[in-house]
Automatic annotation (TrEMBL):
UniProt-recorded name of the protein: Ceramide-1-phosphate transfer protein
Species the sequence originates in: Hirundo rustica rustica
Classification of source organism: Eukaryota, Metazoa, Chordata, Craniata, Vertebrata
Keyword Transport: yes
Keywords linked to the UniProt accession: Cell membrane, Cytoplasm, Endosome, Golgi apparatus, Lipid transport, Lipid-binding, Membrane, Nucleus, Transport
Signal peptide: none
Keyword Cytoplasm: yes
Catalysis: reaction(s): N-(hexadecanoyl)-sphing-4-enine-1-phosphate(in) = N-(hexadecanoyl)-sphing-4-enine-1-phosphate(out); N-(9Z-octadecenoyl)-sphing-4-enine-1-phosphate(in) = N-(9Z-octadecenoyl)-sphing-4-enine-1-phosphate(out)
One Gene Ontology term of the molecular function aspect: ceramide 1-phosphate binding
GO terms under cellular component: cytosol; endosome membrane; Golgi apparatus; nuclear outer membrane; plasma membrane
Length: 207
């Protein structure tokens, strides 16, 4: 907690948050979801200033969602989708600040993260290649050319695999790899439930 308050990142916090996300009824709780994202943002920020344009967007989206949660008392992703859809799909599509379209952006980014962490865990030392491949397989399709270009440029500046495992702050490299093995399925579970929910409500292409 003290380390978190001081801004240090530990992958353990993110793991704990995503683990707390999914209820027995397979609902995704927003408080741990956003707190997992806060942890990921600290991680991004510890990677240096080249990542600041990426973390800035994530901060803006998490902050907007935290505001929605407080005002509307959304507890789960499911209740947020239900309440926002109550005014009809057309009204929802017309809102540039809806919780749904904002979560959708984070959701796509979560897929990127999942793929990238899988790559890190695999032992492949080429972090920039892993990150670019993960990006091309997920977020890239949703970004305009200029964002793709800037993102790929930032990936060239990624630290080495060893440095990454160290920045995760969970102990020696073997432990960091073990922690990744534990964390990835939780992230995958949250991703899968969200994907299914958005697909069912035809929200996967919200502008
Ligand atoms: C090293 C692994 C890092 C994984 C963390 C993922 C953070 C993802 C943030 C990517 C943001 C790239 C720059 C911002 C682009 C926005 O235009 C875009 N946002 C996202 C999250 O894709 C779309 O948001 P918009 O413009 O429709 O509000």
């Amino acid at each position: 907690m003290a380390a978190a308050a001081a801004g240090a990142f530990s992958l353990r916090e993110v793991l704990d948050a995503f683990r707390r996300c999914v209820t027995e009824q397979r609902e995704v709780l927003l408080e741990p979801y956003l707190s997992g994202w806060r942890g990921l943002i600290r991680f991004l920020q510890s990677l240096g200033t080249v990542f600041s344009f990426i973390s800035k967007d994530a901060v803006a989206k998490v902050t907007l969602l935290e505001g929605h949660c407080q005002r509307q008392r959304f507890v789960s992703l499911q209740s947020m989708v239900e309440q926002e859809l109550a005014a009809g799909p057309a009204a929802l599509r017309a809102r540039p600040d809806s919780g749904c379209r904002t979560v959708l952006r984070l959701h796509r980014a979560l897929r990127w993260l999942q793929l990238f962490l899988e790559g890190l865990r695999s032992g492949d030392p080429r972090t920039s290649v892993l990150c670019t491949d993960a990006y091309d397989a997920s977020l890239a399709a949703h970004h305009p050319w200029v964002v793709r270009k800037a993102a790929r440029l930032a990936f060239c500046a990624l630290p080495s695999r060893e440095a990454f495992l160290e920045v995760m702050n969970v102990g020696p490299p073997e432990e960091a790899v073990a922690m990744l093995g534990e964390a990835i399925p939780y992230i995958g579970d949250v991703y899968g439930i969200t994907q299914e929910l958005f697909e069912r409500h035809k929200l996967l292409d919200l502008p």
